[in-house]
Amino acid sequence: MRPVQHIKLAVDAVVFGYQQQKLHVLLVQQKYGIMKGKWVLVGGFVKDEESLSDAVKRELAEEAGVKVDYMEQLYTFGDDVGRDPRFRVVSVAYFSIVNPKGFKLKADSDASDAQWFAIDELPDLGYDHKIILRAAQQRLSAKLSYQPIGFDLLPKEFAFSELEHLYSTLLDKTIDRRNFRKKILSFGFIEETGKMQAAATGRPAKLFRFNKQKYHQLVKDGFHFDVSLL
Amino acid sequence: MRPVQHIKLAVDAVVFGYQQQKLHVLLVQQKYGIMKGKWVLVGGFVKDEESLSDAVKRELAEEAGVKVDYMEQLYTFGDDVGRDPRFRVVSVAYFSIVNPKGFKLKADSDASDAQWFAIDELPDLGYDHKIILRAAQQRLSAKLSYQPIGFDLLPKEFAFSELEHLYSTLLDKTIDRRNFRKKILSFGFIEETGKMQAAATGRPAKLFRFNKQKYHQLVKDGFHFDVSLL
DNA sequence: ACAAAAGTGTTAATCTTACACCCATGT
DNA sequence: ACATGGGTGTAAGATTAACACTTTTGT
């Protein structure tokens, strides 16, 4: 009893990056079709024999030339029956984090044109992608407090002031520099590299790195990452 | 450019209830089809013009005669291309909580036969429903600590020992009775009913109720529910 | 009077918060 | 020498964790 059903299944990816002290999101401009000229999330229809996560990775590679470090399922948007004006599309949205310095975007492919946008300077988004993006932003803020994903947004070696700035910007909170540093260092998986940041001005900062192995070991031993409020 | 796609979209619901001091889950037995005789989660295909959440509610009503208080999207299972042996099915799983005393199950409809199963006495499940159920169980445990969903599992009026037993069973932790009571009462949204529990044996317990209004008010004022570990 | 479960308070230890001055570098 | 951002410690307050005896009821 194969059902008669005309719903199409798509995936969309919200990819976050951090640049110039600001959260950015990856968007592509549609060159053809009903949304011509509009900016939208990277995404597309799932192939019959392809897993959902493979579909996302394929679209990211095809449309933007991006390979992501960290990706997880965000939410499936399918309650608004008319979210795509052409026909019914249910979309599984993914949430991802990347260091933008890692690659060059496909800025002028045949079908699209990928670009980073600062989260506070977004263009008009097509479909319901603004809603998806907002959901992803909430997830990002929430995760920041209980998972060490902040480090995926920064370069491998970073100064404490950068980490601090990231947290205070994304969570929209003021942070006590001393308490923040104390807490983060007390975890035991942030280590000094021994290097210094070339300072534009002021005293040069020590550079640190996130030790993933140590972190995973600690988690196994029952550690819970928590940087709530501060 | 309508895509050529043969993926079917389904929904499945993991409905939890609490009975006889144990967590239960709602299952239906298939009477026909490839999974004949197997127990599975309540679920089915989404209709072309129906929202995902409406599809879940419809299936719950049709297959089990259940109306749920609390429901949220759990996860979309679509990475295993062969999870349904007939053809490709992607399923959006929902997570729900119910007080089983609220209704009589449709125990002998045409297509199915609904029943509660204690979580530690499960039958063999069809499809990948064991995996979906495990994911739901993890979500339940996690939520228990940071959202007041425990109260949805209990009767409207309950004794502290019941709440305590629920938490210690579902989180598999031992609880200090005094500290637990102190903490829960300190929230300010659990109130005495003035009634007493008819005790089988021992001193009768005071009955309490969860004041939803007060809880929502507190959340608005910045309150965060948290019953971690203890 | 005894068995069974409910109810209750105090203390030590830990974690969190608030807060201000000196340091290293470039101009 | 001054401007700029980096680095650091301590004390008060709040929260959590550990712990055992008395009360109420039914038999």
Provide the descriptors you would attach to this structure in a database record.
Arc Repressor Mutant, subunit A, seven-stranded mixed sheet, DNA-binding, 230 residues, three-stranded antiparallel sheet, homodimer, 10 strands, alpha+beta, 29% helix, Nucleoside Triphosphate Pyrophosphohydrolase
Topology, element by element:
Two copies of one chain form a homodimer.
Chain A: E1 8-19, E2 22-29, E3 39-40, E4 42-45, H1 52-64, E5 70-77, E6 89-97, E7 114-118, H2 129-146, H3 150-153, E8 157-158, H4 160-171, H5 177-187, E9 190-196, E10 206-210, H6 212-220
Parallel strand pairs in A: 1-6
Antiparallel strand pairs in A: 1-2, 1-4, 2-3, 2-7, 5-6, 8-10, 9-10
Chain A binds a DNA duplex (27 and 27 nucleotides) through residues 159-161, 176-179, 181-183, 199-206, 230.
Describe the structure.
Two copies of one chain form a homodimer. Chain A is an alpha+beta fold and 230 residues long. Chain A folds into two domains: 8-145, Nucleoside Triphosphate Pyrophosphohydrolase (Alpha-Beta Complex); 154-220, Winged helix-like DNA-binding domain superfamily/Winged helix DNA-binding domain (Arc Repressor Mutant, subunit A, Orthogonal Bundle). Chain A is 29% helix and 27% strand. Chain A has helices at residues 52-64, 129-146, 150-153, 160-171, 177-187, 212-220, and strands spanning 8-19, 22-29, 39-40, 42-45, 70-77, 89-97, 114-118, 157-158, 190-196, 206-210. In chain A, strands 1, 2, 3, 4, 5, 6 and 7 form a seven-stranded mixed sheet that branches. A three-stranded antiparallel sheet of chain A has the order 8-10-9. The N and C termini of chain A lie far apart (56 Å). In chain A, 30% of the residues are buried. The model of chain A has no long low-confidence stretch (mean pLDDT 94). At the A-B interface, helix 1 and strand 5 of A face helix 1 and strand 5 of B. The first copy, chain A, binds a DNA duplex (27 and 27 nucleotides) through residues 159-161, 176-179, 181-183, 199-206, 230.
